[in-house]
Amino acid sequence: MPFATQPVRRVAAAEGIRPSGHWPHTIPAVRQLLTDGLDLDPGVTFLVGENGTGKSTLVEAVAVAFGLSPEGGSTGARLTTRATESPLADDLRLTRGVGAKRAGFFLRAETMHGFYTYLEHNPKTSGPPEPVFHEMSHGESFLTLIRDRFTRQGFYCLDEPESALSFATSLAVVGVLGQLASNGSQVLCATHSPVIAHVL
């Protein structure tokens, strides 16, 4: 992926922001990001760690700073039920490629059922109708959504997608992520799954 077209080249503290003694700055991974910044490579970047290490907080904050809804969805989706996101996005500055695409998607496992309802209440005005995600199993709906929505070149953030996936569907998701990377997209994924994190 050419440097100029990379959706997010670097994540760092916004001007005037220094790590404080308040959450989420007290999370070690967040503090390190605010202190040192994080260069994102082209292709797929995985954040791996135990619960409470800050990987989901980081992915959420980067997604929101990019312009995606904190509750998930594509660029332009404005699903809002109850604000649970951290304020970290306001403390970040993203360095983007000059020619980068603005398209993106945030897949957040814990809010996807709300996103499916949002899609039912806000149907597409052109093209084929959306699949009826609520009528699918949890894993089937995730995989269908990923295959249906992760098609355009852009920036894709995933927060623990494996929570809904079997071994077989995890491998299918790995295939989609690999295809995105080969097509010039960029992926940031928080995961516990050794299947997802180590196959690519």
TrEMBL record:
It is found in: Cell membrane. GO terms for biological process: double-strand break repair; monoatomic ion transport. InterPro entries: ATPase_AAA_core (IPR003959), P-loop_NTPase (IPR027417), Rad50/SbcC_AAA (IPR038729), Siderophore_ABC-ATPase (IPR051535). GO terms for molecular function: ATP binding; ATP hydrolysis activity. Residues 38-78 form the Rad50/SbcC-type AAA domain. Its main location: membrane. One of its GO terms (cellular component) is plasma membrane. It comes from the Bacteria. Residues 152-196 form the ATPase AAA-type core domain. The keyword Cell membrane applies. It is a peripheral membrane protein. Keywords: Cell membrane, Ion transport, Membrane, Transport. Pfam families: AAA_21, AAA_23. This is AAA family ATPase.
